[in-house]
Amino acid sequence: MHPMLVHLPMALAALVPMLAFGLWLVTWRGWLPARSWWLVTALQALLFGSGLLAMRSGEADEERVERVVAEAAIEAHEHAAERFVWAAGLLLLLSGAPLLLRSRPTLARAASLATALGGVIVLGLGYAVGSAGGELVYRHGAAAAFASGGAGNPAAPAARTRRGDDDDGER
After folding, report:
1. Residue 157: inside a domain, yes or no?
2. How many folded domains does the chain comprise?
3. Is the model's pTM score more than 0.70?
């Protein structure tokens, strides 16, 4: 499940800061009401929740992958994921501040801008997680732990793609 679950928090990590900067601008200009900020908070909650699920699914797969990949590489990915998810959780708390501070517009705008800037930091942490995960799969062969027919060999040949190849390898 882990490979399927990791994409949502990564996509949201890219989307949330863009949306936050945009909503900060349009609410500051008065083009949208301050209560529009709930969208940022809701997406940040989804990012945090999906990040927790992805982290849990990675923990569930850890033992199986340890048979193929050195533990140090797995731990690097795991620690990066923890930093990302907990930073996303802290940002969720901060993202609620503009809604609570609507009666104090200057503070609400400052909290909105801080959330947008914090989103860029969370995006950077997400990049580190994805990079470490990519290392596991593409450099260390972590996918071999789940491969069927590859006998655990990360160098097992992929399906034939050239024209003229048939099942028994004759051309």
Report:
1. no
2. 1
3. yes
